[in-house]
Amino acid sequence: MRKAYVTGAGGVVGSHLVEFLLNQGYEVSGSYFTPATDISEIDPRANLFELDVRDHGKMEEWIESDLPDVI
Q1: What percent of the chain has pLDDT over 70?
Q2: Whole-angstrom Cα distance, residue 45 to residue 35?
Q3: Is residue 15 within 8 Å of 40, Cβ to Cβ?
Q4: Domain interval for residue 36
Q5: Alpha carbons 52 and 59: distance in angstroms, whole number
Q6: Residue 5 maps to a domain
Q7: Pair 62, 7: CB distance under 8 Å
Q8: Is residue 29 included in any domain, yes or no?
Q9: CB 71 within 8 A of CB 26
Q10: pLDDT of 34-66, one tens digit each?
Q11: Whole-prediction pTM value?
Q12: Helical residues (DSSP H) of the chain, grouped into ranges
């Protein structure tokens, strides 16, 4: 199964992209920036976590551990 990573997965566009990719058969991980983001409506098949993409060290650590096919 191909892996996809979606930044801004808690936003309007990102949440729709998560749904689209899941329906295309991807294993989806995604990040959102603020703890105030309501992710309760996003498909629970997605692995979502809080991460600031400006934190290059954390991004690099995550990418090396998960190895997505598509970002």
Answers
A1: 100
A2: 20
A3: no
A4: 22-54
A5: 8
A6: no
A7: no
A8: yes
A9: no
A10: 877 888 899 999 999 999 989 999 989 988 888
A11: 0.87
A12: 12-23, 56-66
